[in-house]
Amino acid sequence: MRHNEHIGERYVTASELKSFAFCRRAWLLERQDMESALVGEQVRGRANHVTHGQIVQMRNEDVAATVLRALAASTVNSSCHFCFGATRKEPYPPSI
Hints:
By secondary structure, the chain is mostly helical. About 65% of the residues lie in helices and about 0% in strands.
């Protein structure tokens, strides 16, 4: 059974394209539901891709959280400066 059977015959995944580019014959045999002798390696490779994807997603979430904290701090700082601005010796607007 193809690993992307749930999306239908019309679609080809990036993994299948890579398989085709590497070995057209292997790609054709896979589409005909022939088992590869390297099933263990394929399963391990897919698991490695899932793990890598999870790590990338966590790092992206960390970056997004850091950016949001920086924006929040900047907004609070701007608001405080606007509300409690520096003490002026001259009345505002300056008298002419």
